[in-house]
Amino acid sequence: MIVAPASGSGKTLITCGILQALVNRGLKVSSFKCGHDYIDPMFHVRVIGTRARNMDSYFCDDETLKYLFCRTADQSDISVIEGVMGFYDGIRAAATEGSSYDVSEKLGAPVVLLVNCKGASISCVPVIKGFKDFRENNIRGVILNNMSPMVYPEVKKLIEEEVGVKVFGHILKLKDINLECRHLGLVLPDEVESLKENLNRLAGILEETLDIAGLIEMADSAPAISGKAPSHGVLDEKVRIGLAVDDTFCFTYEDNLALLEECGAEIVPFSPMHDERIPEGVQGIILSGGYPELHGEVLSRNESMKADIRSKIEAGMPCLAECGGFMYLHEQMQDSDGKVWNMVGAVKGEVHNTGKLARFGYITISSDDPGSIIANGGVKGHEFHYWDSSNCGSSWKAVKTSGKTYGCAHEEGALIAGYPHLYYYSNPDVAYQFLLRCSRYRP
């Protein structure tokens, strides 16, 4: 696991460079991102070619966490986990629950602390020592980012003597290699020109200044683990589920899709941006999150798709829409340029840019309706959006980790739609109940 004292230390860039270096060495590599981030795993898959998933100890119990890790890592030579925020930062200000530290402990993952040394030399030593001594942990080494090669040998020697952890190398200031940012995080991989070339260049730099062989050896020392798969219902017959997949609808947990398939779903991709209609023979549709505000005109001008989705929902086809998918279902949506476009119209109201994070963070969601797909134990998820709705819905109750509660989402007839992103493995029955509802619909 690659972690850092804080966000902005260079974790994502350096993790991508290490992943590329490992792939270039001919290794089969799995990569993971701590937390609920969608975009970093997309980089890992599309640009570097690794198998990538999320690891989140808030979303699921310990056995499920280990099971999900093992399921993806099993076919690989090595797995690399990118931490989130600062190493110990969890779901509450003064707790480590849900932190990278929490995940590393539960998986037994050896940890490398990436320290940004810009403007410092020996001062990085007490930082490293503090992180090493704060809790019992798996910190086994450090990488010194933005470290001058002139002072590196002396600082390396001092760290290994004073703290007792291995220094795996240093990284010079990277002037021409970066990953651009946007309001929801890193830009999508397909939008970054020459990213593959840049990452190969970065991998070459890291091969010169990092002990890649030492990192591989450290990974080989990780203890063997296993986890038990959670139980869930399975349909008697397969049900075809249309999944929106394009440049708009791209925020989908791969583990969610795997669970749907285990419960009996046949996933059929389609594009609300480019296809004329939803696929023939599907019995339900899923509209994931993404960037509808960047593609308002394209989505709006696809009148046949909007009409098809609206009529199918009105006819009783189950639809599960999250965040960007929820925005798309409204009557109108403001795009990133401030223009207002007509959308599907299955949800009354309009969506507008608030200019700030409207809601952010982990939530536990429940419903008092015994017929709800989340009635049996609720579900966990998160929200992260700058656009807000005039009609967010109140069918479900969301509880933040702070204890604050609010109503959210529509679960009305065939429609299940709201801003929360759901993590199905927090309660596998949610995926099964949605598919069961789809199985009863006849196209």
SSE topology:
Elements: E1 2-3, H1 11-24, E2 29-34, H2 39-48, E3 51-55, H3 62-73, E4 78-82, H4 100-107, E5 111-116, H5 124-134, E6 139-145, H6 152-162, E7 166-171, E8 181-182, E9 185-186, H7 195-209, H8 212-220, E10 239-244, E11 249-251, H9 254-263, E12 265-270, E13 284-287, E14 289-290, H10 296-301, H11 303-314, E15 319-322, H12 324-328, E16 330-334, E17 340-342, E18 347-353, E19 359-366, E20 379-385, E21 387-389, E22 396-400, E23 405-408, E24 410-412, E25 415-418, E26 421-423, H13 429-439
Parallel strand pairs: 1-5, 2-3, 2-4, 5-6, 6-7, 10-12, 10-13, 13-15, 15-25, 16-18
Antiparallel strand pairs: 8-9, 11-14, 16-17, 18-21, 19-20, 19-22, 20-26, 22-23, 24-25
Helix pairs in contact: 1-2, 1-7
Terminal CA distance:
47 Å
**What general outline do the C-alpha atoms trace?**
elongated
Task: Count helical runs.
Answer: 13
Counting helices, strands and paired strands, the structural category is alpha/beta
Sheet with the most strands, sense and barrel status: 6 strands, mixed
How confident is the prediction overall: mean pLDDT? 93
Number of strands: 26
The largest beta-sheet arranges its strands as 12-10-13-15-25-24
* Radius of gyration over all CA atoms, rounded: 23 Å
Are there runs of 5+ residues with pLDDT below 50, and where? none
> Residue share in helices?
25-40%
Strand content: 25-35%
